[in-house]
Amino acid sequence: xxxxxxxxxxxxxxxxxxxxxxxxxxxxxxxxxxxxxxxxxxxxxxxxxxxxxxxxxxxxxxxxxxxxxxxxxxxxxxxxxxxxxxxxxxxxxxxxxxxxxxxxxxxxxxxxxxxxxxxxxxxxxxxxxxxxxxxxxxxxxxxxxxxxxxxxxxxxxxxxxxxxxxxxxxxxxxxxxxxxxxxxxxxxxxxxxxxxxxxxxxxxxxxxxxxxxxxxxxxxxxxxxxxxxxxxxxxxxxxxxxxxxxxxxxxxxxxxxxxxxxxxxxxxxxxxxxxxxxxxxxxxxxxxxxxxxxxxxxxxxxxxxxxxxxxxxxxxxxxxxxxxxxxxxxxxxxxxxxxxxxxxxxxxxxxxxxxxxxxxxxxxxxxxxxxxxxxxxxxxxxxxxxxxxxxxxxxxxxxxxxxxxxxxxxxxxxxxxx
Length: 418
Known about the structure:
Blueprint lengths: L1 H21 L2 H17 L1 H19 L3 H28 L1 H7 L5 H16 L1 H9 L3 H24 L3 H35 L10 H35 L2 H18 L3 H16 L5 H24 L1 H9 L6 H28 L5 H17 L4 H29 L10
Helix pairs in contact: 1-8, 2-9, 2-10, 2-11, 3-4, 3-7, 3-10, 4-6, 6-9, 7-9, 8-9, 10-11, 10-15, 10-16, 10-17, 11-15, 12-13, 12-15, 13-15, 15-17, 16-17
């Protein structure tokens, strides 16, 4: 899984490196804005994948193959309906959306609707494969998805298709891997049944499992949605409020921010199960959080130093050209995304310890950020200042919420923080 996720992220990074070099700033701004909108809309699908993984693994542990099938069929039908709804909304509102985002081609908007359709369905078989512990097949799908997007993107953009080709490569990748993963999931389930040959336990009414599943992904969904809005909505609003050229510069600078934003991902992957286990055992979890923040913080500080010392060199490395307008934006992005990176660790810490009181300030600050940008947007620096200020507040609030239980009563097994 580490190899698969690593290669998937590498292919995505190479994809953006190629696009930022071979598309004009205006065109890359359109592509990056649509990708930000895509990430926001697919938050529910990512939440469903986590839920599918958890419950399929439980059913398989109890050798309840029929319950696994019923559970997957239910969510597959639900997500097909959701995917169709989003496709129709985007198709019918393509003119309005193109006007709002200052995109001349309706075809690009319609193509994003196609991508969303398959991206909404893909988490069902991906979550199923993960729950069945078919990590090799899931890894293959991730690598294939990233590789197809990169290869098709290079061919289509080099062939002169521009933004349409860049979006088309993503559609091809999701189309192929979605159908392939559905086939592999069905094959894996049949193989599991043939190998075990159990007398399955009586299948009870699974409404309780479904209701528990819906309750499980509610806090996760709210967390991911708010975090995506906090880190992506500024790009969408800049595309609407500023000229296409200015939005292009903003998108180029945001690439650096994204690199810093995703730095704590491996830390989160290790911390989340460890904290969950310690919390179930009624042992101390706060020292693990502190060490996780220290590791991620060290990488983020290095990113800030490089971004402040060599912004023009970074721009030239990414695009092949020097855009002086990107320098101040890169410096702000490096600081803002550091705050968000550390906050991301804290959010998953709250989810692991099952304390949901963090959802209130998270939701409130998300609304405040959108409103503040809508009211105060004279310059892009002003927008980045608003984002950074709220990110700092969010970091401080979440750290306090994590520290408060620890300061009040230490749990068994606590170790020194350093």
